[in-house]
Amino acid sequence: MCGAPIQTQELPASTDLDKHTVLAGRVLSADEPVAGAFVRLLDSDREFTAEVVSSASGDFRFFAAPGNWTVRALHRSSTGEAAVNAEGPGLFQAEISIS
Length: 99
Hints:
The protein is mainly β. The protein has a domain at 21-89: Immunoglobulin-like (Sandwich). The protein contains no helices and eight strands. Strands 1, 2, 5 and 8 form a four-stranded mixed β-sheet that branches. The mean pLDDT is 89.
C-alpha cells in the first residue's frame, strides 16, 4: 500500500507556506478530472523524485524543495506533463492535461 496521504487540494493544517514549498494541481482529460493517474515528480535533470496517485477529483500534491520541476501524469489512457518553477516557499499550481 502507498504511504502517501490522500490527495486533495486542501493543505494539512500544519503547512506553513512561508517555509514549505508545495506543488499541487489536478490531472484532467477534456476538462474532466482523471482519477488513478500515477503522478511523478521529476527534478531539473528529469530524474524521478516521488510519485503519488491522483484522487477521484484528479488532485495531487507534493512537498518539495524550491527549484525547477516537471510533474508527469501517467494513465492507461494517455500521459501528460507540466513544468513548475518553484522559486521559493509557497504554493505552486500545475494542471496536467492528458488526452
